[in-house]
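Page 42, continued from yesterday. The earlier attempt failed because a stray header line got pasted into the input along with the sequence. Redoing it now with the clean sequence only.
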Amino acid sequence: MTRLTIYSRPDCGLCEAMVQQLAALLRDDAVQIEVVDVDGDPELARRYGQRIPVLCIDDEFVCAHRLDVARVRDRLELPGPDAADRQR
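This time it went through. Structure tokens are written below.
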């Protein structure tokens, strides 16, 4: 199972937006999204500081601050938004 981790902190608007956008993009039970509060772990707080949200897929950095839809699609081998048009 593919594991997506969003390093976040409470009351972070960018973090909430990334979680919502990612959930809308995926819609797949084979993918697990875990949201980790960096303030709950001193090492994570030091590592990420204000550089949140950070998205990792299977522990590999994908993007920070804003969801990079193209990189997520590429990493998860998801079809692009116009894939349905090409199949017609």
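Notes: Residues 2-87 form a domain with the Glutaredoxin fold (CATH 3.40.30.10).
Reminder to self: strip header lines before submitting.
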